[in-house]
Design a protein that fits this description.
By secondary structure, the protein is mostly helical. The chain is built from 13 helices and 2 strands. It has helices at 2-14, 27-46, 48-52, 61-86, 92-100, 117-135, 144-172, 176-195, 207-212, 220-238, 263-273, 277-290, 292-303, and strands at residues 248-250, 255-257. β1 and β2 (255-257) form a beta hairpin. The structure holds Phenylacetyl coenzyme A.
Length: 307
C-alpha cells in the first residue's frame, strides 16, 4: 500500500541508503528527480554549442584536439543522464521534445555568447569549476543511477577544468592583447557563473524538499559561497581581477564576502530572454530533425527482430 511504500522510502532516506529504480518512491520524488536529471542532461547537450563554435577556429592542432575531446565528453554526459532519467520511466524522445518546445529548462549559463578563444578557457575554469562544486555533492545524491552517473561525470569535469585553467595560464604568459582577452572573458563570465547555482535560498522553491529527500546535499547559497572561496586564490595565481568591488575576505566568517548577482537577469535568461536562447534552441531543433532518419532506420531495423 501507499503508506508502507512511503515508510520504506522514508526509512531508506533516513538511513542514507540509495533509492533504486524498482523501489517504491513518492510521486513527488520521481517528478523532482526527472525534472532535475532532464534539466541537467539538456544542459550538457546545449552546453556543447558555445564551445563547439570554436572547434574550427582553435589556434593550434593541440587546442583543437583538446576542445573536440571536451565537447564529446559533454555529449557523453548528456547520454548517461538521459539514461538515468529513463530508469524513472521518462522517455528520451519526449524529454527532447519538451526541451525544444521550451517546456523544460537547461542551465542559464549556456545562453551567453562565446566572443573570443579566451572564452573557451574561462568556461573551463569558471563554468566547469562551478559545475564540479555543484556536482561533487551530487555523487551522494539519494537516487542511485543519478549519483553513480555523477562520479564519472565529475572525473571528466575535473579534466575540463584543468584544461581551461592551463589555457588561461598560457594566454596570461602571452602578449598584452592576450592578457586583455582573458580579463575581458573573466569580466563577462564571472556573474553568470555565480548564477549557475540557482536563485538565493530564500527564493528557491525546491531546495527545502530536495534537501529533505537528500537529492541536494547543500543549498544554492552554500555552494555559491564555496565556489567564490575556491575561485579567489585561483584568480590571483592567474593574475586576473574578479569584477566585484565588494569581494573581500571576512576573517570572522572565514569566507569571502561578495556582491549579489543581478537576479532579474537570471530570471530573464531562464525564461528565454537571454542573448543566445533562441539560437541555442533553433540549433537543437535542427539537429533533432536532421537526425530523424537515423532514429527511423534504427527502429525499422529493430522491428525486423534480427540482431
Ligand atoms: N539555469 O528551486 P530552485 C554543465 C530553475 S553544468 C536554469 O533552486 P533546484 C556542465 C530550477 O530548475 C549545468 N534554470 O531549483 C558543463 C527551478 O525550475 P522549475 C547543469 C535554473 O532544482 C559545463 C527554478 O529555477 N547542471 O552542464 C537555474 O532545487 C561546461 C527554481 O530554482 C545541473 O543541472 C539556472 N542556473 O536547484 C557542460 C546540476 N537555477 O522548478 C558544458 C544539477 C535554477 O521551474 C560546458 N541541478 N533554475 O522546474 C541542480 O543542482 C539544481 O537543479 C540547481 C537548481 C542547483 C541548478
Amino acid at each position: 500500500t501507499a503508506s508502507t511504500a512511503s515508510t520504506a522510502f522514508d526509512e531508506a532516506i533516513a538511513r542514507d541508503q540509495r533509492i533504486e529504480p524498482a523501489d517504491d518512491m513518492p510521486e513527488g520524488y520521481r517528478k523532482t528527480m526527472i525534472r532535475q536529471i532532464a534539466q541537467h542532461a539538456h544542459s550538457e547537450i546545449i552546453g556543447m554549442q558555445p564551445e563547439g563554435e570554436w572547434i574550427t577556429r582553435a589556434p593550434t592542432l593541440r587546442r583543437k584536439a583538446i576542445l573536440l575531446a571536451k565537447v564529446q565528453d559533454e555529449a557523453g554526459h548528456g547520454l548517461y543522464l538521459y539514461s538515468a532519467a529513463e530508469t524513472l520511466g521518462a522517455d528520451r524522445g519526449d524529454l527532447t521534445q519538451r526541451l525544444i518546445e521550451g517546456r523544460q529548462k537547461y542551465s542559464s549559463i549556456f545562453n551567453y555568447p562565446t566572443l573570443s578563444f579566451a572564452d573557451v578557457g574561462v568556461i573551463g575554469w569558471l563554468v566547469d569549476g562551478a559545475a564540479i562544486c555543484n556536482q561533487v555533492p551530487l555523487c551522494r545524491s539519494s537516487y542511485g543511477p543519478y549519483a553513480r552517473a555523477m562520479i564519472r561525470i565529475c572525473k571528466e569535469e575535473s579534466f575540463h577544468q584543468r584544461q581551461g585553467y592551463e589555457l588561461l595560464m598560457t594566454m596570461m604568459r602571452g602578449t598584452p592583447e592576450q592578457q586583455a582577452m582573458v580579463q575581458d572573458a573573466v569580466d563577462r563570465w564571472w556573474w553568470p557563473s555565480l548564477m549557475m547555482f540557482g536563485p538565493p535560498d530564500a527564493e528557491s522553491p525546491n531546495t527545502a524538499q530536495s534537501m529533505a529527500w537528500k537529492i541536494k546535499r547543500h543549498t544554492n547559497d552554500e555552494l555559491r559561497q564555496r565556489f567564490v572561496d575556491m575561485s579567489v586564490p585561483q584568480a590571483a595565481a592567474l593574475g586576473v581581477t574578479l569584477p566585484d568591488p565588494e569581494l573581500r575576505w571576512n576573517e570572522e566568517r572565514g569566507h569571502h564576502d561578495f556582491g549579489q548577482p543581478d537576479w532579474a537577469e537570471l530570471k530573464r535568461v531562464i525564461t528565454g530572454g537571454g542573448v543566445m536562447n533562441e539560437e541555442r534552441i533553433r540549433r537543437r531543433r535542427e539537429a533533432d530533425s536532421d537526425g530523424a532518419w537515423v532514429r527511423e532506420a534504427a527502429a525499422a531495423h529493430a522491428a525486423k527482430g534480427t540482431s
